[in-house]
């Protein structure tokens, strides 16, 4: 599974359990739709496995629609869609794309902005160790992500391949 997000500050995506992030060159004054499509393209460049089943989740409805359709009246979007489908054909992928609500795209939203979101916080390690000393039988970390979980078993409010539920 691939999760992607772009912002004017940068891009971020997750391919399975690996996170990637970066910034767009300042000379790239493209629309957010083009930046989202570029991020999907960057993510797909990380996959070299043939005959893979790939699901992309993106919170930009225009990018999702353009990839599904395979073209656009906007030349840059159309070119990126064509590149995506040519790569899928070259590697014989089964490629699907779906929209994910931005509020559930927490991890890559954080990556694309290179900031901690207000929904992303956790106890300081020393505080958590104090709590563990008082109650060593804690088993489940609620409302955590793979970026901030304190226990091996955790439940995430957003898509996360490492989560329990």
Give descriptors for this structure:
165 residues, alpha/beta, Nucleotidyltransferase, domain 5, 2 domains, RNase H type-1 domain-containing protein, Hepadnavirus_pol/RT
Please describe what this structure looks like.
This is RNase H type-1 domain-containing protein. InterPro entries: Hepadnavirus_pol/RT. By secondary structure, this protein is α/β, with parallel strands linked by helices. The protein has two domains: about 1-115, 2-Layer Sandwich (Nucleotidyltransferase, domain 5), CATH 3.30.420.10; about 120-165, no CATH class. It has five helices and seven strands. It has helices at about 30-45, 60-70, 75-90, 105-115, 125-135, and strands at about 1-5, 10-15, 20, 55-60, 95-100, 140, 155. The strands form two sheets. A five-stranded mixed sheet has the order 3-2-1-4-5, with helices on both faces. Strands 6-7 form a two-stranded parallel ribbon. A hairpin with a 2-residue loop joins β2 and β3 (about 20). The radius of gyration is 18 Å and the shape is elongated. It starts with a strand and ends in a 10-residue tail after the last strand.
């Amino acid at each position: 599974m691939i999760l992607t997000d772009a912002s004017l500050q940068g891009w971020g995506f997750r391919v399975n359990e690996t996170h990637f992030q970066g910034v767009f060159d300042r000379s790239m004054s493209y629309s957010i739709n083009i930046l989202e499509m570029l991020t999907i393209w960057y993510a797909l460049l990380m996959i070299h496995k043939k005959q893979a089943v790939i699901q992309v989740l993106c919170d930009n409805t225009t990018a999702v629609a353009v990839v599904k359709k395979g073209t656009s009246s906007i030349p840059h979007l159309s070119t990126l869609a064509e590149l995506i489908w040519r790569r899928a054909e070259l590697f014989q992928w089964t490629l699907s794309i779906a929209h994910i609500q931005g509020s559930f795209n927490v991890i890559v939203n954080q990556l694309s902005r290179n900031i901690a979101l207000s929904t992303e916080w956790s106890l300081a390690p020393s505080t958590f160790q104090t709590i563990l000393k008082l109650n060593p039988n804690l088993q489940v970390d609620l409302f955590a992500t793979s970026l901030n979980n304190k226990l091996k078993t955790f439940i995430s409010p957003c898509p996360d391949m490492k989560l329990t539920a």
